[in-house]
Amino acid sequence: MRTALVPAPVVLQAPHQGPEAALWLLPQRAVWWPPGATLFVADVHLGKAAAFRSAGLAVPGGTTGDNLQRLDALVRRHGARRLVVLGDLLHARAARTPALLQALRDWRGRHPDLAWVLVRGNHDDRAGDPPPDLDITVVEEPWTLGPWHCRHEPPAAVESALPGPTLCGHVHPVCVLHGAARERLRLPCFVLTPSALWLPAFGAFTGGYAVPAAAGQSRCAIADDAVWPVDGPPPAPWQLGPGR
Question: Which domain holds residue 205?
Answer without folding.
Answer: 10-240
